[in-house]
Every structure is written in C-alpha cells, then in structure tokens.
Design goal:
two-stranded antiparallel sheet, 159 residues
C-alpha cells in the first residue's frame, strides 16, 4: 500500500498547523546541515588522499635515488655513509607520514560511513507511526559498506 501524503499529514487545511509536518521540515533542515558538514569532511578527506599520493610519489623517487647510490657502491663508486644515512632518514620520515595519513583516512572513512548510516536511520524513523514502519511498495534498504552506499528497493516478497 503506497504512503499517501494525507495519511501522514492529514488534509491540506490541517497541514499548516501540523506538528508532524513541522517535525519533517525540522528534520529536513537538520539533514541538510549535516550533509553540508559531511561535504566539508569529504573535501578534507580528499585533500588528505592527494597529500598521501604526493608523499608516496616522493618516497618512490627517494627509493630510486637510494637504489642508484647502492648500485654505485656495488660497482666501486666512492659514496659517503652520511649520504646514505640522509636518504635512509628521509625514507623513514616519509614512511611514518604514510602510516599516519593512512590511519587518518581510514578513521575518517569509518566515521563518515557511520554517520551516513545514522542519518539513514533517522530518516526512516521520521516515517514511522506509533513505533511501526509505514507499509509501502516504495520501501528501500540502505546499506553502508566501506566507501559504498547501496540503496535497494524492498518488496513485500523480500521481507
């Protein structure tokens, strides 16, 4: 049975002074503000991913230079130990940064996915009556897994 606007909010005359309509509008405002905040968080996450990519590129170049120095030593070139130690320190520093950025990115992803699941739950809760979900042919199931958010139609047969 489809959800009818009048079943949720009553007649058009009652709608202007309806607490349920006001609740939905307030929830919509809250969701919009939350989405704005989440967008800013995703931009920050994207910035961290770009920085991580840059650090990995610099590390790759350091490995290449370090490898050339090691090969030079093997074929008899005179290379001071302090030069090798300097490269080793730079490599260790970049590896630490990679670990920190990777951890930050993973935590941000997990927090974002959790907040999206909570937002979906709050949205479903708005459309409940007396603690029971309103039956509808247009019901959906929202699943958050990693970076993926899946919305599937739920039919009465699949319940």
């Amino acid at each position: 049975m489809p959800i009818k606007f009048s079943n949720i909010f009553g007649s058009a005359q009652e709608s202007f002074n309806n607490e349920k309509l006001e609740e939905v509008l307030n929830k919509t405002k809250d969701v919009a503000e939350s989405m704005s905040k989440k967008s800013a968080e995703r931009i920050e996450l994207s910035r961290k991913k770009v920085e991580l990519f840059d650090i990995k590129a610099r590390l790759s170049k350091l490995y290449e230079k370090y490898g050339k120095l090691q090969y030079g030593i093997r074929i008899g070139d005179e290379i001071g130990q302090e030069v090798l130690t300097d490269y080793e320190n730079q490599i260790a520093e970049l590896r630490e940064k990679i670990d920190i950025y990777t951890k930050d990115i993973d935590e941000a992803k997990a927090a974002f996915n959790e907040s999206m699941a909570q937002a979906a739950k709050r949205t479903r809760d708005v459309f409940c009556q007396d603690g029971r979900e309103v039956q509808s042919d247009d019901a959906v199931d929202v699943t958050v897994s990693g970076d993926d958010i899946t919305v599937e139609e739920v039919t009465p047969d699949s319940k």
